[in-house]
Design brief:
mainly alpha
């Protein structure tokens, strides 16, 4: 008996196809069966046939469900590769999970054999066919067997044939159908690009229209199949076509090369518009990431070949259009469907913004140095407007709105050092960015963002210690200098971040709350930077006075005064911290103060006793003694409150 679906022969007594599981035509009861049933009574005959019909219906439903589950397990589990479109009974619909959800495993693990044999073999097979056909066509082109028109026609026919084959096998073999359809889209992209850019068979506007149709077709097929893999195949083919066809090889000095560069940019923009259309309906993050990276790579390849001849305006306009397209690709889905962005979505937003600003910075710096701060400010206003529009769309977009606002704040902080071009302002911007990231991480409950914030604070601290500490001694003025401003803002940022972390300590991760937790680390860093700043101010002040007098008697006195001032500063600062620790009943503060007191003690007994003059030496010992006695008095006076801090838990 021939199966009506796969057209293969089955045994005559089969009711289901042994190859695809489809239901065969119901076999009529034979005379022998009828006579047996008649001999047993009419009622029994009716019950027998009713039972047989019920079993046949259940087996058909189970066979259909098995096919669907096999197709689902064979496809990717992310991005929403849904079940193939087929007529389903209510029982089938209940048994099959919706698109984007994982099918219940029913105790079975991931079928690697089915995934390898059913998916990757098909993908590799289609890729091998395309490469083999490309080698054959290359041979035919080299020997002039086929002219330019014939080449394009062959490519279009081949692409349409693959699309037709994919549509034909869409229900029965979804992985194979996706691979064939993706290959067809790639070949169509390649063919239209060749007809347009290489052979000049069609002009700019028809080529743009054809490419737009192919982009729409690729997006439609990906949505129809619910297949991120098909979308990825299409985008790889789209961006690979210019490189395969040597799109960047033309001589940049010729007039034809200038026109060719414009065609290439138009091609990339049309493909990106297809990405935007698809990203508005499906949040396939890996697809969007791949498209963004390929777009940036294409722009880089184009600029490397034609950047010397193309105008700066053309380069910046194209880059801006790409940026805006991917702003839409990373946000429109969440705005339209009111879905909160996850960490991956936010990373895509940051990558797009950072790439645009970084590349634009390199393009515009030489000619528009004085306007780059305004450029960063414009980006801050743009993302601020995006945050407002997202929130206005609905309260469900609050997370997206806050993240866009965070990007706006980052650009706002960057605008200051970029415009002023001063190293102190760079540190200030980094400190402000660190506070903004801490606030966003706690507000949006994104622990990963706090890791970036901690990294920013580490960079800002390193910059303070390495780059901002040195000053020009000839023009030095205590307090009224750039170093003091940079340290002051950074210290305030550390205190503010510590407060935010303390206020949101319940939402911190376990490793951030263990021991002394993370916010005392920020407090300690703020105090160390404060002591570092005050020490640097004292050293710079006396070094400024020592210019030209280092080897004189006055210079020797200034050196003694500098060393004594440092000792006094450290001792007094430690005593103040100790007093605060006793008043606040804070064991960490008291221990930190004792550790800090060890520095002036060691300095007096190991260094000052040998280097200071007699008067300064007496002052150092007496001053340190007073501080230590006062500290001991505080411990004795408040011993009950302290309760033995050395063993306190």
């Amino acid at each position: 008996m021939e199966c009506p679906v796969c057209h293969k022969d089955n045994p005559a007594d089969s009711h289901f196809c042994i190859f695809c599981g489809s239901t065969l035509s119901a076999a009529p009861a034979t005379d022998q069966t009828a006579s047996q049933a008649t001999g047993r009574g009419g009622d029994f005959q009716q019950e027998l046939f009713a039972l047989w019909e019920e079993v046949r219906r259940l087996r058909a439903a189970l066979a259909d469900v098995d096919i669907r589950l096999e197709a689902l397990q064979g496809g990717p589990s992310v991005g929403g590769n849904a079940l193939p479109q087929a007529a389903a009974t209510p029982a089938d619909a209940a048994a099959v999970p919706p698109a984007g959800e994982a099918a219940p495993s029913k105790g079975h693990g991931w079928d690697w054999e089915q995934a390898l044999g059913g998916n990757w073999l098909a993908l590799v097979g289609v890729l091998a066919l395309i490469i083999g056909a490309a080698f054959f066509l290359k041979l035919a082109f080299d020997n002039n067997w086929i002219g330019p028109t014939g080449r394009v026609i062959l490519g279009i026919l081949g692409g349409l044939a693959l699309l037709g084959a994919g549509e034909y096998w869409r229900r029965r073999y979804p992985p194979l159908a996706r691979s064939l359809s993706g290959g067809g889209i790639a070949i169509l992209y390649l063919s239209i690009y060749a007809a347009f850019a290489l052979y000049g068979l069609i002009s700019l506007y028809p080529a743009t229209g054809f490419l737009l149709l192919i982009s729409i077709a690729a997006a439609s097929l990906a949505l129809r199949y619910e297949s991120m893999s098909l979308a990825i195949i299409g985008i790889l083919g789209a961006f690979g076509a210019p490189f395969i066809l040597e799109g960047f090889v033309s001589s940049p000095q010729s007039a034809a090369a200038s026109g060719h560069s414009l065609r290439l940019l138009v091609y990339v923009m049309v493909v990106d518009l297809g990405v935007l259309a698809l990203a508005s309906f499906r949040n396939w993050r890996w697809f969007t990431l791949l498209a963004l990276l390929l777009s940036l790579a294409s722009f880089g390849g184009w600029f490397g070949q034609y950047g010397d001849t193309a105008s700066l305006l053309t380069s910046q306009v194209i880059l801006t259009l790409m940026f805006l397209i991917f702003v839409g690709s990373t946000t429109l889905f969440h705005i339209i469907w009111r879905r909160p962005p996850e960490a991956f979505d936010q990373s895509l937003m940051v990558l797009n913004a950072a790439a645009y600003f970084g590349i634009s910075y390199g393009l515009l710096w030489d000619h528009f140095r004085l306007w780059m701060g305004g450029f960063a400010l414009a980006l801050a206003l743009f993302y601020g407007g995006l945050a407002y529009l997202a929130l206005k769309r609905g309260a469900q977009n609050a997370r997206l709105s806050l993240f866009a606002l965070g990007i706006a704040l980052v650009f706002l902080t960057i605008a200051i050092p970029v415009q002023l071009g001063d190293r102190a302002w760079t540190t200030i911007a980094w400190a402000a960015e660190g506070v903004a990231l801490v606030w966003l991480s706690l507000t949006l409950r994104l622990p990963t963002s706090r890791l970036f914030a901690y990294g920013v604070f580490v960079l800002a601290t390193g910059r303070l210690l390495i780059f901002d500490t040195p000053v020009e001694l000839e023009a030095f003025r205590p307090v009224l200098n750039e170093r003091f401003l940079a340290f002051l803002v950074a210290i305030a940022a550390l205190y503010l971040a510590a407060y935010l972390l303390w206020r949101g300590r319940e939402s911190l991760q376990q490793w951030e709350r263990e021991g002394w937790s993370i916010y005392p680390i920020f407090l300690g860093a703020a105090n160390l930077l404060t002591l570092w700043l005050l020490s640097a101010e004292i050293i710079s002040y006396f070094d400024h006075l020592l210019i030209g007098e280092r080897f004189t008697a006055a210079g020797h006195g200034l050196q003694n005064a500098r060393n004594l001032s440092l000792t006094a500063l450290w001792a007094l600062y430690a005593s103040v911290v100790l007093a605060i620790g006793i008043a606040k009943r804070s064991r960490p503060l008291r221990i930190a103060a004792l550790v800090l007191l060890a520095a002036p003690i060691a300095k007096v007994f190991v260094y000052d006793v040998f280097t200071l003059d007699r008067v300064y030496r007496i002052g150092a010992f007496i001053g340190l003694g007073v501080v230590l006695v006062a500290s001991g008095y505080l411990y004795q006076r408040y011993s009950k409150a302290i309760r033995g801090f050395l063993v306190e838990k």
